[in-house]
């Protein structure tokens, strides 16, 4: 029998005693539910662009001319452009899902290595040049140099890139994004500060959830998948660190990645998430 997440088994012994065993299955239920919700979300998120691509391909075929209509090259071009945009987003969704499942899965964090924070920031600025210049946004590096963190350079670059890409995506043109670094409390803080649209207080707790977007329409328009911040959070956790946000609507947001400044103890394995 099962009562409120407690699995109960009773058995009678020969001597007339009864043994009652109880096991807490709340956690396994929670994990099973999270997994079910995740699969449902993934299916929905994949079906939407696939459905759009099917409709757009039909429209493109029609616009290239068929038995009842003459070709309309301008319309054909518009549909082809939208097919390109949707398929790029779909590709991104698939690769971010793979990234997330790698981070959450059995693969352990590679041996933590000393990583120069300057190198991370330089690489991120390099990677985000195209979206930044498309909106004439300046990405600046301010702060202490020669800081070191311990972990995977690849993962840390991915995390900070996601934060800077968001800062660019959710900011008006010709604003500024600043990456700030400093030593704090024996660790290192990397903050990404923008002058963007900001985040409503009611959304602040939820934006790190998979597929959660404060504004679906805007996220879609910017090619967002709703997975970027979930990936950042996992990377922070994998590094025994954390990510926090503070934001004012209409003023801007600051995302801060806090990382330990020394290698983790050999006897203390880095926490690995158990979800999915
Ligand atoms: P997305 O792919 O939609 O950007 P993320 O997981 O990266 O997904 O972010 C989740 C949501 O958090 C976004 O849809 C957006 O509403 C909000 N968000 C993230 N970063 C910022 C930011 N710098 N400024 C304002 N809103 C942001």
From TrEMBL:
Reactions catalysed according to its record: ATP + protein L-histidine = ADP + protein N-phospho-L-histidine
Domain of life, per lineage: Bacteria
Cofactor: a divalent metal cation
Example of a GO biological process term: cellular response to phosphate starvation
GO CC list: plasma membrane
Organism: Planosporangium mesophilum
Enzyme type, top EC level: transferase
Region (Disordered): 263-276
The protein, known as: Sensor-like histidine kinase SenX3
Residues of the full protein shown: 151 to 426 of 432
């Amino acid at each position: 029998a099962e009562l409120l997440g407690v699995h109960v088994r009773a058995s009678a012994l020969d001597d007339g005693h009864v043994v009652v065993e109880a096991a807490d299955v709340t956690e396994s239920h929670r994990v099973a539910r999270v997994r079910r919700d995740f699969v449902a979300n993934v299916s929905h998120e994949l079906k939407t662009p696939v459905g759009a691509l099917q409709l757009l391909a039909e429209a493109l075929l029609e616009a290239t001319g068929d038995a009842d209509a003459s070709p309309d090259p301008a319309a054909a071009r518009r549909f082809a452009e939208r097919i390109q945009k949707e398929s790029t987003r779909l590709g991104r969704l698939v690769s971010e899902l793979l990234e997330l499942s790698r981070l959450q899965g059995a693969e352990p964090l590679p041996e933590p290595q000393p990583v120069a924070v300057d190198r991370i920031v330089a690489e991120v600025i390099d990677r985000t040049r195209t979206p930044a210049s498309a909106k004439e946004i300046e990405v600046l590096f301010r702060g202490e140099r020669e800081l070191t963190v311990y972990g995977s350079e690849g993962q840390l670059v991915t995390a900070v890139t996601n934060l800077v890409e968001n800062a660019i995506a959710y900011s008006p043109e010709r604003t500024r994004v600043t990456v700030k670094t400093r030593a704090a409390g024996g660790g290192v803080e990397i903050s990404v500060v923008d002058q963007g649209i900001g985040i409503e207080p009611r959304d602040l707790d939820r934006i790190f959830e998979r597929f959660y977007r404060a504004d679906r329409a805007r996220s879609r328009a910017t090619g967002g998948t709703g997975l970027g911040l979930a990936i950042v959070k996992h990377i922070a956790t994998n590094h025994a660190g954390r990510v926090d946000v503070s934001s004012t609507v209409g003023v801007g947001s600051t995302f801060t990645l806090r990382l330990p400044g020394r290698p983790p103890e050999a006897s203390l394995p880095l926490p690995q998430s158990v979800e999915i």
